[in-house]
Amino acid sequence: MRDDHPCLYCGQRAFTILHAGIEDRLGFVPGKRDWLVCENCGSGILSPFPDVSEIPGFYPPVYTFGLKQDEAGGTLQHLMAQLEFQAFYRPQYESQAQRILRLTRVPRHGKMIDIGCGRGLRILSFRRLGMNVHGMDLIPEPVEYVKNELGIPAICTDMAGLPKAFEPGTFDLVTAFQVIEHVPDVDVMIESCFALLKPGGWCVIATPMVDSMQSRFFGRRWAAATEAPRHLTLPCKKGLQITLERHGFTDVLASYDSVWMAAGHFGLSAVPGAATTHFYGRGKLAALAVRGLGALAAVVALPWCWLENVVWRRPAIGMIFARKPD
Asked: What is the dihedral of CA 65, 68, 70, 76, to 10 degrees?
């Protein structure tokens, strides 16, 4: 079959149906949508593809994890946020930062920017390792938090505005964690990353992978698929390599994100009600129990996630490294 919108990774227009009639797992956006898979590169695309003006309305007020949730959430949510950060998120972020700096060998006091930085918790780990960190996000509130609470330079802009905010070749490292699947124009994002980097600099993209073991195991229940319509695409290794190389990147390496991140994704697929939105947006004891069940599922899945990352090499959350030529 053909679709009016091309694949955002390879540009082709020939698709087959991957999943039909998918509903938003958060119950925030009504309606059903389909996932199509590109016959050329294997990446997924949402159908019908939304207009750009619709996209901001797809996100609930509480969507991503942060240490300071809505004050209406109460003491329970704040205590849980602190516990989850120390036990789950901070170890992940520390591991990600160390691994990225080890594999890319960027200067330890080099300059980096995290695209889609949210409330900046991840870039704190890079700062602790000596990096000169910057943040960027589309939403004003987290940008103000990063600047005022964390003391980290940050800008509020879309992907097209990034090259206008900095001189070309400003950064040694550009990171984007679970962002590209939300972007309506992948070419603009990759072009912006390329322009921001110094010659020899690295771009690192982490994203759910449609060619993963978890995608096949959960099928239409896979958390990345039921994030429609906030997820606009479901990338795969081949599709990401095609688009990165088309925009001039070399040394493209497909690797994996942390085992804990993959396990957390498993938990959300097994227990959709454990999402951050459901717990921190409601604040009821029943939601806490479901959150705990999702955490238990994640712990149980750790051996599976290690296997899919290291042995099967089909990670649920891929980490793609690409270098700008010298």
From this structure: 90
Q: Label residue 81 by pLDDT band (50, 70, 90).
A: confident
Query: Which residues have a Cβ under 8 Å from the Cβ of 123 and sit 6 or more positions away?
Result: 112, 114, 117, 133, 134, 135, 146, 152
Number of domains in the chain: 1
Which uninterrupted H or E stretch holds 162?
Answer: helix 162-165
Give the domain extent around 129: 59-323
Over 223-253, what HEC string results? Answer: CCCCCCCCCCEECCHHHHHHHHHHCCCEEEE
CATH assignment of the domain containing 72: 3.40.50.150
Residue 277 in domain: yes
pTM exceeds 0.85 for this model: yes
Task: Report if residue 41 sits inside a domain.
Answer: no
* pLDDT, mean of residues 31-58: 96
| Within a domain: 297 | yes
Q: Does 200 map to a domain?
A: yes
In angstroms and rounded to an integer, the radius of gyration of the C-alpha atoms of the chain is 19
Within 8 A by CB and 6+ apart from 302, the residues are: 259, 260, 263
Tokens of 205: 């993209």
CB neighbourhood size of 102 (10 A): 9
Query: How many Å apart are CA 11 and CA 257, to the nearest integer?
Result: 26
Complete DSSP assignment for 73-124: G-HHHHHHHHHHIIIIIHHHHHHHHHHHHHHH---TT-EEEEET-TTSHHHH
